[in-house]
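Input record (one chain):
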Amino acid sequence: MFCVVALAATGLTATATAATAADPPRWGFAVIRSDGIPDYSRQGGSWPGGYWVQTTLGGPGQVFVRFPQIGRASGGVAHVTAISSSADWCQVEGWWQSGADEVVAVQCHRHGVGPIASWFSLSFGDSSQYLSVPQAFGYVHWDGSAVVGRFNSSGPAAVNTVEPSTLLGVWMVTLPGFGSEVHAGNIQVTAVDPSVPARCKVAGWQVTPPAQKIVVRCYDAAGAPLNTGWSLTYHRERPLVGHSESNRFAYTFHIAPGTSVIPMTMTHLNYNSRRGTVQISNSPDGPKKQVVFTEVGASPDNVQVTAVGYNAEFCNLSAPWEWYTTRVMIRHVACYNGNWKVDHSAMITYAGR
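The corresponding structure, as predicted from the sequence alone:
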């Protein structure tokens, strides 16, 4: 049975930004390797033709990613996943409008080493579209003390909330209007902190007919619980970035033996928008996962991964995903306990242009 962490309601009163039905959809993604213009085949977004993502290096392990022509004064949500054969993770430091563009600051770290340059996969998304069940898209941006951004596709009256726990580094997120009888959809969580190393994950998930309830846990570089900011996106039969311009997306939930906090069948957690298959297998070269989504592959595209469990394990991509016609092969989903690779539960999501 799902174990709900003891939570203390705080009666949040902070004003949070939310998309409205009049806002145009704005989204983008890219795989970042260095400064300049990223690989054209691995960047895409809602900007008009002739524009490209631009990146600028900051301090050690820090990159500023400029998504063209999708800037907004507030709102939106960013997620990042490190791409490395080592125990690297990346966090978002923040995002903001710069002229017509949206800038996302990313900081990457290596366990036991500190800030380090790493490949990473980054997405930024917003949506103003209200949806009918079973489709759902909602996000929350928590800045460490209050909700500062949120959207809920079930309607303007549905307000996503966050309740901090009495335990350090634990929160309960409630997404009303997205309720279901069984676990369905996909969740991505990313630490958002401009000051200290941080990483976050899904630690629990409870479904009821009125709402989805998700527990978020965050940790510092050494794996100790940490109060920090974070972003969370829940998407069901919609891509992670919320847009409706593509029908090529898929997601899955790998439940590793002995680590799952969410006992359930997989029927509604595997989804392929093109009616293709979703395949998960263990990699032959150690405790890594290989995920294959058939029929949905389309360049440009993006992959994000979030660890699921109670403790400080985290996950990344050991290498970029590959295409074989319309088959997407994510060969190297790796999870770590410190520097050690472990078989750990993770949610994986894919979106094509």
